[in-house]
UniProtKB/TrEMBL annotation, chain A:
Organism listed in the record: Geosporobacter subterraneus DSM 17957
Protein name stated in the entry: 2-oxoglutarate ferredoxin oxidoreductase subunit delta
InterPro entries assigned: 4Fe4S_Fe-S-bd, 4Fe4S_Fe_S_CS
Residue stretches making up the 4Fe-4S ferredoxin-type domain: 6-35, 43-73
Keywords: Iron, Iron-sulfur, Metal-binding
Top-rank lineage group of the source organism: Bacteria
Signal peptide limits: none
Pfam families associated with the record: Fer4_7
A Gene Ontology molecular function term of the record: iron-sulfur cluster binding
SUPFAM superfamilies, per database record: 4Fe-4S ferredoxins
UniProtKB/TrEMBL annotation, chain B:
Protein name: 2-oxoglutarate ferredoxin oxidoreductase subunit beta
Gene3D superfamilies: 3.40.50.970
Natural source organism: Geosporobacter subterraneus DSM 17957
Record bears the keyword DNA damage: no
Entry keyword Oxidoreductase: yes
GO molecular function: oxidoreductase activity, acting on the aldehyde or oxo group of donors, iron-sulfur protein as acceptor; thiamine pyrophosphate binding
Annotated PANTHER family: 2-OXOGLUTARATE OXIDOREDUCTASE SUBUNIT KORB-RELATED, SUBUNIT OF PYRUVATE:FLAVODOXIN OXIDOREDUCTASE
InterPro entries the UniProt entry points to: 2-oxoacid:Fd_oxidoreductase, THDP-binding, TPP_enzyme_TPP-bd
Entry keywords, A to Z: Oxidoreductase
Length: 76, 248
C-alpha cells in the first residue's frame, strides 16, 4: 500500500501559540515548545518526529496565522 | 517533495493582528486563496468593515476601501456601479452587518447588486470588548449581558442567512463554519461559488461563516471551536439556503 510521507515547516515567529494545529493532527506529532518563546512571546508549535508526518495539511488548514507550509510525496 | 500548502498570493506578507486562535485569519486566507485561484486579484476591490477586521485592507493583496460602520454594502454598490467589470466584495462581522448595517445588507440584496459579502458571525462584538450583538445566543454572557442574553428583554438571535434567503435578489446564500479542517474546505468552496455568482453576473452572493472569539467568549481557542460546534451550530444550522439554479 502506498504510504504518504510529508514534511511540515513552521514560520515560528508568526505563531501565536493557539494550539489549534495540535488538535487536528491525525498522527499527533505537533507539540508546543514549552522551553522556548518566539519573538511574539508565545511558545511556538513544533514537530519532533517529522518521519511520522503524512502531509495531510490539516494543521496548515486550521492555522489562523499561516505559520505552516506543507510538502508531500507518495512512496510506492 | 511537492509543496502542497503555502501562503497564498491573495494575502500580503503582513502578520495578522488578531488574537491567538481567532478564526478571522482562516477566513482571510480562504478569501485570498479563492481570489488567487479565480485569477481576479488584479481586478478585485474589497471593502473593509468596522470591527476586529477593520484593518483587513492591510492583509488582502488587492485594492481595498474602508467603509463607515455597517455601510460596506453601500460603498461596494457605488464601486461596482462605477466599475462594473471589477470584482467587488465586502468583508463584514456580525456587529457590523447584522446590527448597524442591517438596512444596507437587506437593500443590497433587494437591489441584486452584483457583489459578494463575506459575513463573519462570532455572536459577539469583538473589537469593542465583548458586548452583546444581535447574533448573541440566548444565555450567552457578554459585557452588556452579564447574566446571559435574556430573550424577554433583548429578543432572540438574528438569523441573517435565513432572512436574506427570502429576498429574490440574493441568488447565493450559504452558511458555513471554520471549526474543523473539513468544514474549512467546505467554506472555501462556498466562498468560491459566491464569487463565481458575481463573475457570471447573476446577482448578490453572501457566505455566512460561523467564527470564534476566544478572547471575549473567555475560552481557549480549542474550547472555542467546541463551543461553536455545540452551541452555535444547532441554532445557526449550516447549509445552502439559495443557489442560482433555484432562482432560474
Amino acid at each position: 500500500m502506498a504510504k504518504a510521507k510529508g514534511k511540515v515547516s513552521f514560520k515560528e515567529d508568526l505563531c501565536k501559540g493557539c494550539e489549534l494545529c495540535t488538535t487536528v493532527c491525525p498522527v499527533n506529532i505537533i507539540e508546543m515548545e514549552r522551553t522556548r518563546i518566539n519573538i511574539k512571546g508565545y511558545h511556538p508549535a513544533t514537530v519532533k518526529e517529522m518521519d511520522k508526518c503524512i502531509g495531510c495539511a490539516n494543521c496548515a488548514t486550521i492555522c489562523p496565522d499561516l505559520v505552516i507550509n506543507v510538502e508531500r510525496e507518495m512512496d510506492k | 517533495m511537492a509543496v502542497i500548502f503555502e501562503r497564498t498570493n491573495g494575502l500580503t506578507e503582513k502578520p495578522f493582528h488578531y488574537c491567538p486562535g481567532c478564526t478571522h485569519g482562516v477566513i482571510h486566507r480562504l478569501v485570498g486563496e479563492v481570489l488567487e485561484e479565480l485569477g481576479v486579484l488584479g481586478e478585485t476591490i474589497g471593502v473593509a468593515p468596522v470591527g476586529c477586521s477593520v484593518l483587513a485592507y492591510d492583509y488582502f493583496n488587492c485594492d481595498m476601501h474602508e467603509a463607515a460602520h455597517g455601510r460596506a454594502p453601500a460603498v461596494a454598490t457605488g464601486i461596482k456601479r462605477v466599475f462594473p467589470d471589477k470584482v467587488v466584495f465586502t468583508y463584514q462581522g456580525d456587529g457590523d452587518l447584522a446590527s448597524i448595517g442591517t438596512a444596507e445588507i437587506i437593500h443590497v440584496a433587494h437591489r441584486a447588486e452584483k457583489i459578494t459579502t463575506i459575513f463573519v458571525n462570532n455572536a459577539i462584538y469583538g473589537m469593542t470588548g465583548g458586548q452583546m450583538a444581535p447574533t448573541t445566543l440566548i444565555g450567552q454572557k457578554a459585557t452588556t449581558a452579564p447574566y446571559g442574553r435574556d430573550a424577554g428583554a433583548t429578543g432572540r438571535p438574528l438569523k441573517v442567512s435565513e432572512m436574506l434567503a427570502t429576498i429574490d435578489g440574493a441568488v447565493f446564500v450559504e452558511r458555513v463554519a471554520v471549526n474543523t479542517p473539513a468544514n474549512i474546505r467546505k467554506a472555501k468552496k462556498a466562498i468560491k461559488k459566491a464569487f463565481e455568482v458575481q463573475l457570471s453576473g447573476e446577482g448578490f452572493g453572501i457566505v455566512e461563516i460561523l467564527s470564534t472569539c476566544p478572547t471575549n467568549w473567555g475560552l481557549t481557542p480549542t474550547e472555542s471551536l467546541k463551543w461553536l460546534e455545540e452551541n452555535m451550530m444547532p441554532y445557526y444550522p449550516l447549509g445552502n439556503f439559495r443557489t442560482p439554479e433555484e432562482v432560474k
